[in-house]
Fold:
Amino acid sequence: MNLLSSIDATELPVTALDGDEFWYKDAIIYQLHVKAFADSNNDGIGDFAGLTEKLGYLQDLGVTALWLLPFYPSPGRDDGYDIADYGAINPDFGTMKDFRRFIVEAKRRGLRVITELVVNHTSDQHDWFKRARRSDPKSSARNWYVWSDTDQKYAGTRIIFTDTEKSNWTWDPEAGQFYWHRFFSHQPDLNFDNPRVVSALVQVMKRWLDTGVDGFRLDAIPYLCERAGTNNENLPETHAVIRTLRAELDAYAKGKVLLAEANQWPEDVQEYFGRGDECQMAYHFPLMPRIYMAIAQEDRFPITDILRQTPDIPGNCQWALFLRNHDELTLEMVTDVERDYLWSTYANDPRARINVGIRRRLAPLMDNDRRKIELMNSLLLSFPGTPIIYYGDEIGMGDNIYLGDRNGVRTPMQWTPDRNGGFSRADPARLYAPTIMDPVYGYESVNVEAQSRSLSSLLSATKRLISVRKSTLAFGRGTMTFIRPVNRSVLAYVRQYQDEVILCVANLSRSAQATELDLS
Structure:
């Protein structure tokens, strides 16, 4: 009899997660949506109890941190990013007790938890906004959001969702004024010139730190403050707010991390590290589309070029890398010519396009070519930065471009070939989104159970890549030096940390290539 299986799981030792303040440099982050992962009560929506049951799988996969998409009460018009209450759990996903149990179990398995702190805006259903719109225009309650008597203010500011929004201002008949929003019109922007707003968000942060979370992804932070005559992005006042949040975080809880979501060029994003006193991590948005470009062109130049332009960052900071996530594969950080090329290569069907991006998962983007998928994952796990794996990509899940918005890449996790892919026992019509059922990517052919039994499956290959990544600190903390062989289809680079030197060679071409490497 296996001794471990006879021990009650609740008696397993708590893994020591304290001690290393730079844990995020060596982390492998797994991004998931609670509603999409596992449904324990068969109502068709994933929940914290279901997620807790699946933690063994995530530990076995080898990831070390979980990034949870918003799980707060919300009207759900922007998949939870329209928050109606920062301090509670969406009842669809369970209770605060379920959340606390999840945190305890995650920590026991050595998994850290990063949650969302959507700072830029709330839902128009949030109590703060309801109070603001019915309060006197001169009152402090009204001042929690950004108001104007005219919609011509801040005229030089770009509109982000060009396919749905015509203006950054929306008229509110109850308030008798326009309110400012950088995203959807049902997401009014908070007013960060009001110190009460900043202190309210600090209290929100402390509340979740008290439950045991290890960090926060700061959503859409380039847009916090507004000033006339500017483009209202990356303003000095915005950086001052972030420094305040970081100082409060460090004073309240050591070893916790802020992850900046700033879809900007590297020289702008580096500002969000400050002097090591703003966010410890930030996404490297411009690198991601160029990895796809390099594979399509069988040429290393797009990758070497953007990494050459990437500035040095403070020693306590780290880039966060990803291939795919819950949003579209954004093409904001490429030229118009490059965008057209990527669209024609990866999104020939116009339905696969949204905003300035592509709403597809990794496997369909790679035409389900196993070698290409593994190549992409090997680059993700060996480049300088912390890799983020999107749920389901480890088994090569597909997408459904016929679902609205970006929901096609947010379908239920595929666990087994059984009903609903093992995600839920609910009537299939009750699921929050239909499972993928096509013959190539459907749950009967792509699922965790089948791939767990095969050493040659994509899941097993992904586990091996992750274990290689974890075998050394060089990938998370080391330097990167390109070797430039004559053959541009070959991407070769050296990762070095202290006296450990690792040579990585990737063939970006679909055929075998010969090359010489100068390792002098």
